[in-house]
Task: structure prediction
Amino acid sequence: MDHNALLEGSCHCGRVKLRLPSIPEQGTRCNCSLCRRLGTVWAYFPLRTVHIEGHPEHTQDYVQGDRTLRTIRCKGCGCVTHWELVDAAPGSRHGVNLNNFPPALLERIHIRRFDGAESWTFLD
Result:
């Protein structure tokens, strides 16, 4: 699979399309109460560097807990595509769910396990 194909992903129904600026160096699998239920693998990029087509017209957000993050999902198929800060300041980053990209992308990067449930540290 070529490099550019690895950078393009979408939700299941294709209403929300994502294009990464580069192949991430790593992904993060978190076990917090939300991420463990979603089964996401996050990669982090500076805000507005990931091209997202179909957002916000085809998405809904979910804000929980301390109300600092908006988890975004497709209205059509329900796939979680990314998260954004509620009050994003210049220099902020956002998370992109790598499970919406070709499996070959995840095979190329190191996936770290993050304990967001208790210690707030990486487990590896």
